[in-house]
Amino acid sequence: MSAADPVLLRERLSPSAPVVLVAAALGAVFGVILVPLSLIAAVVVAVVLAVAAAVGVVLLSPEVVVARSELRAGPASIDPALLGAPEVLDREAWELAMGQDFEPLAYHCTRGWMHGGVRVPVLDPEDPAPAWVIASRRPEQLALALDAARRA
């Protein structure tokens, strides 16, 4: 993606506040291990690991970027010209796509705390993935951006 290529949509799949709090709590639990050795060391380790876990789950969250020449979801990217029409997956359709209708060969960029997204068929016969399934808090906007990128 070049600087001249306008970004149509950018979304970070970051966790909600409760998920960050759970990650922080899990990080802090490791400080308990050190209580028999030193209470001060246990508290310091608990605080450091709680902060590290909370920051980690946010900073390591994948980003979805749609530009005219590229769709990037997490570490993977594809030319939008190689994609079919996106299908918006509401909560019910998302649960089916992640459950009984799961496509193991499709490329998935999903997170457990997200309950919607899009499914985009791949039209390239050389690509082993039949589709991309991408989580989003704004699936309708993602689908519109993908349509615009496909037409460009």
From TrEMBL:
InterPro entries: DUF3093 (IPR021443). Keywords: Membrane, Transmembrane, Transmembrane helix. The chain crosses the membrane at residues 12-33, 39-60. This is Membrane protein. It comes from Brachybacterium nesterenkovii. The lineage of its organism: Bacteria, Bacillati, Actinomycetota, Actinomycetes, Micrococcales.
